[in-house]
Amino acid sequence: MIIWRTTWAASPETPKSLCGTPVSTKLSEPLLDPRGDVTESNRVNRSKPTIGEYCFIRVDGKEAIEFEFSWHAGTIDPLKYASPGHESTTTLQSPRRIQGLGTRAVVGDDGAFVTAPCKSSIDSSDGPKETDEFSLFMRVSRDIHGADHRESIEKFMRTYFPAAIETLNCA
Hints:
CATH topology: Protein Transport Mog1p, Chain A
């Protein structure tokens, strides 16, 4: 499902929201270059979440940013799941812990992984389950960007993650 579609070549407007979360265009623009036809495929259901839900931002049909919204019971260590060699879809290039964002956070050259408390009820294959933590994983495509975007990613997530938490129905 495409939530919005814009062509930057025709309009210098950068989307003011990504995956249902308001965001400063000054923060998202460096992660979406090169400018082109931007589309969003958002499968995140905030009112009735499942364990893991995805949202993809594409530029000219190529994936630019991937988000994974996850609700779970108990705390997890993002560094464990983001470290290369871990059998996970959430590995990052050179992940390092950062302070002052969520409960636990890591930023890598190509993305970030942040957790915070969030009591919620999710739908699972076993029926409804209570959760007490939320995680947001974000990866910037190296195919499009190629370079280390650690600083831009950290600035983006310091604003985006708290804004995303505000859009959730956390108790």
